[in-house]
């Protein structure tokens, strides 16, 4: 319930505002005029509305204050129940608060340090090359479907130790879970339960096989790992596995597509990268800044609190909008422009704004995106858009569903 007069009388949950992607102009107005804003979320009756934070400083402060802004109380989406009840969501670390969250992160964090991730660099390059090689004789393709799906799926599959022939169905299962706002991807709430149980059954099979014969993959590590002297329950392993699949697939796919699109639209910047590939890490950061893969992460207040003179009651949902905070003119000059040469790129919040839940896969994502863009530019320096493409219908996933391109 809003406790201040709503000046910008809009519902950010209204999909009509999002048909051409995130409404950046509207977010600029909110940031300037009403940085703590209430939306009734009428699309989901019974779920209640949500507050929006759009300034980088507010997103940062709320992220650091996990005692007031809980990930566990109402999960991270714009609804409590997207087919998966809160009790089940809370088995995933992204929807846990400390101390439970800290224990999980400590357990799995070791596998994701920059040093450990660097060991996978050659394997990632081989995966990227193998997929891009499929297109050497082709004039065009759907970059979103034919390239941006298989690559991250194989990267995360190879880390987890699942076979390549299972990639497509694992991606399908995770899409049904995270792209729940798009009716083309998911027809109804019940789908999620069915798909979720299928994926749990799948993981259970793999888990049993690994328990008999452990390997060096991440899944084996999770099975044998101990937290406070206890092993993870099978269900905890399954839900973490699903989180890794979803976080690892949706995110790098979205960032790659949006960054490639921006490079096609700014040929002089693309040429600069072709001439000097050492600039590619900066292009990756600018892609992350301009087009954060996740539009927001949600929190819920544990007690009444005040931000910028606005009182937020206890138990309300608060969305931390990275797609707005990453374009905050207090942090970035000319924030709406895509510019691989800009200063201060380390200040973006695409992986979260610091704090306990900061993205576990940031090093992996950075390495994967760098290699992926390097290899794409080396093979297809003249790639061009071949039609408008199609957006995922979602506030949470900032993603292209289809992106037809010509390759030469
Ligand atoms: C471009 C790529 C990526 C982006 C933009 C991204 C973004 C994010 C964001 C915004 C969060 C939540 C931060 C918060 O609530 O404070 C997060 C958490 C997380 N990400 Fe990523 N991510 C990416 C890639 C990956 C990859 C490749 C993996 C793993 C394979 C991964 C695994 C996770 C996990 C496990 C969490 C939960 C961490 C926690 O709760 O402590 N992410 N990510």
Give a short summary of the structure.
The chain has 408 residues and is of the alpha+beta class.
Structural write-up:
This protein has 408 residues and is of the alpha+beta class. It has a single domain (15-406), classed as Orthogonal Bundle (Cytochrome p450). It is 45% helix and 11% strand. It contains 16 helices and 14 strands. The chain has helices at residues 24-33, 56-64, 86-89, 100-109, 114-118, 121-133, 143-147, 150-160, 167-178, 189-212, 218-224, 234-265, 267-275, 280-290, 322-325, 362-379; strands at residues 36-39, 50-53, 69-70, 140-142, 226-227, 230-231, 296-301, 305-307, 310-312, 317-321, 384-385, 390-391, 400-402, 404-406. The strands form 5 sheets. It has a 5-stranded mixed β-sheet. A 3-stranded antiparallel β-sheet has the order 4-14-11. Strands 5-6 form a two-stranded antiparallel sheet. Strand 8 (305-307) and strand 9 (310-312) form a beta hairpin. Helix 9 packs across helix 10 and helix 12 packs across helix 14. The protein starts with 23 loop residues before the first helix and ends with a strand. The model is unreliable at 1-5 (pLDDT under 50). Bound molecules: protoporphyrin IX containing FE. Protoporphyrin IX containing FE binds at residues 63, 93-94, 105, 156, 243-244, 247-248, 251-252, 255, 288, 292-294, 297, 350-352, 355, 357-361, 364-365.
